[in-house]
């Protein structure tokens, strides 16, 4: 089976929601194949990395490459923003786990690493800033905690 056939099978599987199967087909394509450099295939690969393999940073990188060539593509922009939000949610969950384990300084670093600018939901922004304030208070950085709480209320 040639690279084009493998990609067509990956597209069919992804459209059917079988991202694991699509990922398997994508990985079977020759890494040197020029087909992998097309915006359609890079976008598909981004979706597979995101939805199938949960490799969010890699998915974001694929969408960024597509957006370099097609900056106004609405589907890619939407997927990219959803991946960025998913990355922020994952970091928030890690911060929450650290906070619950009493690792306040580590949790503060994790929360601080989350960009609260768009794309971000109001709920995520509130919870991250609020939890950041809580752990900053726990480690004695009260002034910074107050700023975080104010951010949560914006």
Quick structural overview:
75% of the residues lie in helices and 0% in strands.
List the main descriptive attributes of the protein structure presented here.
154 residues; 0% strand; mainly alpha; 75% helix
Shape: elongated
Beta-strand level of the residues, as a percent range? under 5%
How many β strands by DSSP?
0
Global mean pLDDT: 93
SSE arrangement:
Elements: H1 3-15, H2 19-28, H3 39-52, H4 56-69, H5 74-100, H6 104-112, H7 122-138, H8 142-153
Report on the structure:
The chain has 154 residues and is mostly helical. Helix content is 75%, strand content 0%.
